[in-house]
């Protein structure tokens, strides 16, 4: 961009929207103005930004004039309704929902992996699914060296991926159980406290969920790898924040475990924590709030030819959402 941009954030009162503000401030994103939007219920409220406050505006058609980059994090329906209006007003939209991810004219970007794809946007750039980002941060450097063929993955997804009401539901249920009270449910179809549910998003006729198919479909687009095969099971776990993923990957070339570890260590945005003898491996309790993803349990896979297994953990509100979106905006500013 030729000038310092005016930035907008849609869905600013949500968990990801709040993280977007914090990341913009923390990274000292260069801007000459900030405008923030939410539903009419939140209009007029003030939210903190960089030691000050910004007034929340009501999201409606025609409000985007004068904004250069707008970050959307308010759900697919909101994005489909308002993102085209933002583009027609001259904005570049960075959308965190699934609304536009698989459209051929919309780049799907993880800056460390395919940042150059922002060059062919037509007004909208999509932020990938959180579990896809976290997994690919470890897989991308290995794919470049060994050629990725297939992935078998199980995700362990924190309740904050569902939203603030899910966080409250887990807290409430833990308290109810500790007091011997009846457990109440509002967000999930089953009790989440002290439980795990192999159910994230809605089920398809194939038996997979929409969330599970994102890793294959989005992974193919991000890696520019149309033949990538992925079988994924997504599980919701009673963790507040940060997603964990167990990955078994098969490659075209024989893989060297020590070499693979070094490639992951050298890749930006990811760190290796892998010393089982000292009980050192990534855990969501420690990774929550961290910008980087962490990889451990790196080992030769015993069931796949040229296979590698590992465990990767990332904060789905940061690298899985807000941080990745701000990094895309940084690419736009850098030109």
Short description:
The protein is an alpha/beta fold and 335 residues long. The protein has 9 helices and 13 strands.
Structural write-up:
The chain has 335 residues and is an alpha/beta fold. The protein folds into two domains: 6-128 and 321-334, NAD(P)-binding Rossmann-like Domain (Rossmann fold); 132-315, Dihydrodipicolinate Reductase, domain 2. It contains nine helices and 13 strands. It has a seven-stranded mixed β-sheet with strand order 3-4-2-1-5-6-7, with helices on both faces. The model has no long low-confidence stretch (mean pLDDT 97).
- Radius of gyration (Å): 20 Å
Write down the overall mean pLDDT.
97
| CATH-level-4 superfamily name of the largest domain | Dihydrodipicolinate Reductase, domain 2
Structural class: alpha/beta
Number of helices: 9
Q: Characterize the overall form.
A: globular
């Amino acid at each position: 961009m030729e000038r310092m941009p005016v930035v907008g954030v849609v869905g600013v009162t949500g968990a990801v929207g709040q993280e977007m503000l914090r990341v913009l401030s923390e990274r000292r994103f260069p801007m000459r103005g900030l405008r923030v939007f939410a539903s009419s219920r939140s209009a007029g409220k003030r939210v903190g930004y960089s030691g000050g406050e910004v007034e929340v505006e009501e999201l409606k058609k025609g409000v985007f004039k004068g904004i250069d980059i707008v970050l959307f994090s308010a759900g697919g329906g909101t994005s489909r309704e308002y993102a085209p209006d933002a583009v027609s007003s001259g904005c570049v939209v960075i959308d965190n929902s699934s609304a536009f991810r698989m459209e051929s004219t919309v780049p799907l970007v993880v800056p460390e992996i395919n940042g150059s794809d922002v060059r062919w946007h037509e007004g909208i750039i999509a932020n990938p699914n959180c579990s896809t980002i976290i997994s690919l941060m470890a897989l991308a450097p290995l794919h470049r060296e060994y050629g990725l063929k297939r992935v078998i993955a199980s995700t362990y997804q924190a309740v904050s991926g569902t939203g603030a009401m899910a966080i409250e539901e887990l807290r409430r249920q833990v308290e109810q159980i500790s007091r011997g009270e009846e457990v109440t449910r509002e967000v999930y179809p089953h009790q989440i406290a002290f439980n795990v549910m192999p159910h994230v998003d809605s089920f398809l006729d194939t038996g997979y969920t929409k969330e599970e198919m994102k890793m294959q479909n989005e992974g193919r687009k991000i890696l520019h790898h149309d033949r990538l095969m992925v079988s994924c099971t997504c599980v919701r776990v009673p963790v507040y924040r940060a997603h964990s993923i167990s990955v078994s990957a098969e490659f075209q070339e024989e893989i060297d475990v020590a070499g693979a570890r070094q490639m992951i260590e050298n890749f930006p945005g990811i760190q290796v924590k892998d010393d089982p003898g000292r009980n050192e491996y990534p855990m969501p309790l420690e990774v929550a709030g961290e910008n980087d993803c962490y990889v451990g349990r790196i080992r030769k896979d015993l069931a796949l030819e040229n296979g590698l297994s590992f465990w990767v953990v990332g904060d789905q509100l940061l690298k899985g959402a807000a941080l990745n979106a701000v990094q895309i905006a940084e690419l736009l500013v850098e030109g």
